[in-house]
Amino acid sequence: MNIMKKVRLLCTVFGTAALCGGEINWQNWQAYSHEKLTPQAALKLTAADPVPEIEGVKLSGKNLTVPLKGGDLNDLLNIEKKGFNRVLLVKTVKVAENTTVKLGLGADWWFEIYCNSKISTGTLRAGGNIDYPPTAKDHFAVLELKKGVNVVSIFAQSGSIGKFTFAVERASDDTPVTKISRRNELEELLPSTETLRHGPYLIAPSRGTVTVGVLTDGNVHGVGVEYRIAGTQQWQRKWDTLGGILRSDSDLHRITLNGLKSGAEYEYRILLASENKKFKALETHTFTAAPDDERSFSFFVTGDTQFGSAKRGRLLKKWQKLTESCDFQVSLGDMANIYDDFDVMFFGGYLNWQGKKIYHGKPFVSVRGNHEMRGTERSRWFGVLSADREKGYHSFTWGKTFFIVLDTGGDGTDIGRNSMTAEATKEYMSAQRQWLEKIVNSAEYKNAKFRIVLSHEAPHSHRVSKMNDMARFISEPLLKASKSAEYPVHLWLSGHIHRYRRTIPLTTAAYGNAPCDPSDMSTGTEYNFPILTVEGPGKNSPLAASATVVKVTDAGIEVKSFDEAESCFDHFIIQPDGKITEKENEYKKETLKIYR
Q1: I need a labelling partner for 144 at 20 to 30 A (CA). Which of 308, 410, 519, 558 fits?
Q2: Would you give the DSSP letter of residue 78?
Q3: Which residues pair with 212 in a beta bridge?
């Protein structure tokens, strides 16, 4: 990508902090450059000795005043422009009392920020620098300044020859931070505390059940959930257990609540156990259980939100009213570019930006995309987000609608990075196909009024590739069953190709905002249902992202897609018999064309 052509680091200050009665000036730094600098140099800095050294030799620093609109560090520090330049920016800050300061940072390509030798956030391990040009609103860090002298340092490294800028500006102090997970530090050296790091949040919703997830601050003695129908007195209690004992071996906990009353509003709260056989109950939240009748419901859909964590968060913030109006939300895969740190990527870059009503009360349905197969925490996806701890495919029922969630795997790059053998991949995908053969013959599938499929790759209208071939292989039993007028698929939602596209059933045509390759559409006459593909970042189409709201009523399925400004550019209704009614507006006519 061209985004690696330049190196850019920016910083935003939130609020003010007392520095002997004045404000901290974040434009002034001491800068050190050396080809052998590593992030570990920041860990050795102290208030008494804030000068880094390489192989026992102290580095010579330069006073650096960063221009208000940013400056090129290569020029400001007189560094030869070459690939992988490394700079350590150091600042000693004396405060009269304990103070919290928030900073916003963006970098092309890597950075990490430390306060008193403790990492706050960064992209060396968390990823996220996919935006170009990077801005001071790409990542946000919190600095806990203690009374006295503190050392703040930023390690930055270029990705290739180019510019290397750093800027400072003010912004509001209520922006969520993207803090590095303690899993990326030496966790065994950190004390555990009886507090939550993230959550609670809800995953795997279905008729009569939902799963509550939390991440604790290190391993705790036990985690449970108390829940009750709102307005009643009696709590039910359930703990995360293994072999009849409370789980104390993990910071990730999942508790599945069963026997929920259809469509009822529930109150729930997390319980944290102590060594002395006591526990404390945390804040109470609410959610609505999945209904089993024909009442109307809606869900919010995104996919391919492969932006920097803060940009992704701001995008979700813009769509917050849409999400709040829905009963649950769906990610169609590739939520982030790389899965190296869920604290930064999912919580700091997704849920923390949304209101409590969404964070704690709107169940989350996650589809595994090919990027979910990348990164050091790729396996952790199954614990944090997947409905199943071992499989990325499942089904669920909401009202009279049956949902099928497919796992279409990865491309050659994803498989190669993860050392997946061809045999293991084939075995997993064959098992998924066998599972799907049973699903399409199940009572849940046949008795459903509507059937909706969620996947990352799609069997039709996506570019011809090995992933596309795999999607066809997996879904063949479903495609065969859907040809029956008695058991049709009504809607297929997908991502992956980073351009908005909606197929016209039984044709080789599609609505889109960018031209289609004829080979992508050649099998269209085989598909009697629409496949809608959400937008994603890239140069292929005019939109950078899209959100889709699907509303299911007794009369049909209403689908609306929105751009980043929350303007509706696609609107149609799927009737129970599969027929489609187009709803026109001027923006739709301007944005979408029919490509054949």
Answers
A1: 308
A2: T
A3: 202, 255
